[in-house]
Fold this protein.
Amino acid sequence: MNDYPGPEKDDFKTLTDLREEREDVGRNCSTNPTMGDIIHMRFSRRAFMGGSLAVAAISTTVSPLALLTADDARAEMSGTFDFTEVEAGVDETHHVAEGYDADVLLRWGDKLFADSPEFDPKNQTAAAQQKLFGYNNDYVGFIPLDGSPDHGLLVVNHEYTNAELMFPGFATIQKVTEDGKEKEKVVLGDYTKELVDIEMAAHGGTIVEIRKVDGKWQPVLDGKFNRRITATTEMQLSGPVAGHERVKTPSDPTGVKVLGTVNNCAGGVTAWGTYLMAEENFHGYFGGELAADHPEAAQMERVGAPGGDYAWWTFYDRFDMGKEPTEANRFGWVVEVDPMDPNSVPKKRTALGRFKHEGAESVVNKDGRVVFYCGDDERFDYVYKFVTKGTYNPDDRAANLDLLDEGTLYVAKFSENGTVAWMPLVHGEGPLTAGNGFNSQADVLIETRRAADLLEATKMDRPEDVQPNPATGKVYVMLTNNTKRKADQVDAANPRGDNAFGHIIEITETDGDFAALTSRWDVLLKCGDPSVAEVGASFSTATTKNGWFGMPDNCAIDADGRLWVSTDGNNAKATGRTDGVWAVETEGEGRGTSKLFFRVPVGAEMCGPAFNPTGDTFFLAVQHPGDAGLATYETPATRWPDFRDDMPVRPAVVAVTRQGGGKIA
Ligand code: FEO
Ligand code: CA
Ligand code: CA
């Protein structure tokens, strides 16, 4: 493929960039210390280098590491990953390590049922989209059938939609004058109800049976478990908030029945084989105006609702906060789906709190309780864990199906002495009392963020995936970036004040007890280009110019307990590289060494990473490919994966396998 030339304008932002900026303003006004403050206090006497993280510095500053050739650096590597590293870069297609195949398994619009219609991008309908693979695949999980590593259910979240890339003739490139400067911009057309309905049908999730045939994965279109879940699927609120006054609406006076799930970013698969879909930026789907003196106004502002990113509220009253002000209290939860019953009603598990859930990865603790880790993905928000009250029963699946309704939610406070205190969000304890406006556990959970503020949790740099490693008792916290941390929030010696590239925290649970209330923490990696001293990145010196990354987002632990990290936001123009998946050494002398395994086509973000149980397949989700520069349906930055003039660019899940078989190594 030809090298992609990059956007024409340095200051160009795609609609996705702009939406993300609006969504993520950092709404935590409490004075709790930020993670950067804590790292600074803990490590300021060590060899952290000062300076700003300006991306512009990348091309102008060179250190000895940058002069080391990739071959030299590789020769120094003696890690646990033996694949040959991919060259970082940017072009129209994906790249995987030599000796591996990355086959497209499911694309937006692919059939999921025997009676699915053909994908017809120029004549889309909501009815067709209900039976086709949804848009913007994010979380991917694999649930084996009959214990097989080669046959199972693939569960996939469809986080959001890019109307400008989905609908022919809908978006146009127009000349506009902004701040006295003339520039070109992508402008969306007028929504119709049918377009909104297609968007709602392209959200949610997919459950689809897949099978390996002659070494290649394929969907089983007559699989009896195949199912689409969308923004209109009937769901149930369960746990402490179910039926509460604050979740009753004009359409649902019971406060139990909810339609749909939105912005399902990452998620999880439980030990009992259910699929968790985490609701992240739910506020963007709500529009209208909530009166400033409405009792919900302050807490809605804390989550940014109404965000007004979609037109849904102009066609559906429940998304209009002026008309149904409590509907937004019914979003922001973790949804549990039983994929073994295609007619099961998904349950919003309110005991896990309401915030912008990135994901919900879990581990069965040695005492049988199950521990879920959740990041709240906004600048200056928090890391949580939830410990079930009951214990997992490996011999009785049905007995586990409501484990998520009872337990304790904790929020993390990271101290400079290297400990993490997990503070319970329990009504009546500490400040979580009627005096502070919490009359019940339901109030604590609906306003999880405010409860955590009062407990003085540590403000983090956008917590994304939080992944426990059952083999080691360690937990990895992806902190993607936080450029909104102002210089006056840290002192000059804190190099990560303007944290453009993010970092990874490693939590060590005490004695391998994931339910422990006190843990230890350390920084595994400070991300960014290690050849630029000002960035202050901490990759090992064995990491090549291809091996460093920024903006860690999702991650996976493979069957051998090794860490793989996927990224979101590596700006191809500024860094000359796309997002991808990197293998990261966490143990021994090689700790902090990272290698590039797979990279996405231009404009895409890397999501999903998930292994099958034997580790011979790595499922990866390529989200919003082509979304760079002045990207519309007619002018995507790439036409991956079909490269056909009559087919739009399509988000897709790829299955990576080793040529000739064997583990991803
Ligand atoms: Fe949907 Fe936190 O990324
Ligand atoms: Ca994410
Ligand atoms: Ca994960």
Summary: Residues 159 and 263 are 4 Å apart (CA to CA). The pocket of MU-OXO-diiron (ligand 1) is lined by residues 159, 265, 280, 358, 377, 464 (CB under 6 Å). DSSP finds eleven helices and 33 strands in the chain. Confidence is low (pLDDT under 50) at residues 1-11, 39-71, 491-495.
